[in-house]
TrEMBL record:
Transmembrane segments: none annotated. Residues 290-660 form the Glycogen debranching enzyme C-terminal domain. It comes from the Bacteria. GO terms for molecular function: 4-alpha-glucanotransferase activity; amylo-alpha-1,6-glucosidase activity. This is Glycogen debranching protein. Pfam families: GDE_C, GDE_N. GO terms for biological process: glycogen catabolic process. Residues 19-238 form the Glycogen debranching enzyme bacterial and archaeal type N-terminal domain. It comes from Chroococcidiopsis cubana SAG 39.79.
Amino acid sequence: MGIQFGREICGNLDIAETREWLVTNGIGGYASGTVAGLLTRRYHGLLVAALKPPLGRTLMLAKLDETILYGDRFYPLNTNRWGDGIVSPEGYLCVEQFSLEGTVPVWRFAYADALLEKRVWMQQGANTTYIQYASVRATAPLQLGLKAMVNYRDYHGITQGNSWQMVLDPVDLGICVTPYPGATPLYLLGDGATATIVHNWYYGFDLAVERYRGLSDREDHLHAATFQVTLNPGESFTFVASTESHPNLDGAAALKLRHTQEQKLLGQWKASRSIKAKEPPQWIHQLVLAADQFIVDRPLADEPQGKTIIAGYPWFSDWGRDTAIALPGLTLCTGRSEIARYILRTFAKYVDRGTIPNRFPDVGEAPDYNTVDATLWYFEAIRAYHSATEDDALIQELFPVLADIIDWHCRGTRYNIHLDAADGLLYAGEEGWQLTWMDAKVGDWVVTPRIGKPIEINALWYNAVRSMANFARRLGKPHQEYEAIANRTLARFSRFWNQDLGYCYDVLDGPDGDDLSLRPNQIFAVSLPLVGAQGIAPLLNPMQQKGVVDACGQTLLTSFGLRSLSPEHPQYRGRYGGDPLQRDSAYHQGTTWGWLIGAFVCAHLRVYKNPVQARQFLEPMANHLCDRGIGSLSEIFDGDAPMTPRGCIAQAWTVAEVLRAWFATEE
């Protein structure tokens, strides 16, 4: 049995509104909501279209308010909470069961002796959402009514309707919504239904999660039209919302295609695995499907098949750091090396002054390059790809770009990123900039600036230069210079070890000296493949490696990842919440990060050489698949028990690192 809830979850609004579903379209668009059908975020909607793939995300169809007339009784299936706190109607009380078919959410509404099934999915490669209703049990016809609530705004925004007049035009089998001249039209269609134009604003939808986040928590949506259709027992009806004027309206064919695509993904994954490997549990199968939700198109003029990775849903775009970290788990561990190749080639086009972009802005301006680690993780992604495929052709193609990156780092590039000739360690940072993954910034306040020589940056640098030496050797190119650079880093990396504390400094040579805060970044000095691989000198000796793993395990480890700061530190924050200032001040000051569990498991495996025990650290994630983002894994969790999930409901590098670590323990 896959993921499935009954009335014990669906009928309890306090729980059902915290369980969120997600479907995606492979170009950056998505649909998301709660099991209860209640809007709780500004990011919820049945069609959040990527109008400039993979960005330009725009909320177009917020929800459908559904009603059933069966016999002589009227049943509301929708649920809304209003600004005065009243929940009306309470359609969640009709939900007898919620489940996932692959990634397709399925509701079963029970009323009298009848049962209605509802499914939601998207067409891959198109801004098209399907909502299908099937009368699976009934003794008489039912009349289904659908109030289409539309909007047109950036997905980060919020709408106050006021006197906004949208243009609503009847078209064959539905209506066309044009919010204003020049806007992308929305087509609402349903073969067999009667569509009646309404144009009536509904004011004051309450968004509880936005209130928790300290943001505006009221929104208005336009009731554009009502669709009505009669379903006889055994019949189904598919409602389609699309930016295309003539999408496929055959719901059965569209659903079959979606299931076929997901079976193909699972088939690719299974075909890539060793025939000696044991069959993974069902929750790993679910993660393989979840992995695909983050892989999207980023076509370029000279790379029409360009690909990238969405960092997290519902609000992140594609980030260089997240893409590079997530690539091995999302593509190589799922048997999709060709996707990895596209992504690596795509990002090579954006290298500038020896760095890849940190972030592509939502509105499409020039990329931001304020990162020191994204480029080093890019090296590790290439190493992992080559290790899995032995694709020398790609290494040959990218080698000039990689050589230029190393050269820029040695002589110095933006944000004072440079190799210190005195000790061979990489320095990075300028006042007012956040360059590592601990990148929270509120106004001009960088919460964890980490200016100096961060430990994971130097572990990544060593890993990258060793990789470069191996690439050069593989291609018959000079490799001695890269070996020499790596050896200089190795010779002074011991500076990070604090003998008195039994673990590593987090940052050396910062404005205030060396930072002895116990943070998880040191785990990469043990976990990265080339910091201690056979035949390559390790950065830390066996005693020090064990000290790092034990310090992280005994102080930072939680059920869902590693805390970003020791609970014993005076600046530790064990709860993540509140307004943006409160949240960002806790983001890397104690909050648990799910993606770090991958590095911890691999480091633990290297030190203790016990794959069964290492894999046990991943098992709580199986239960988490039924929490918050159903079928996926969250971005962050509270540092304090019970480690409540926070942040994005589906995070690329969390899913990726759990998959990568699972299969590392298998090998």
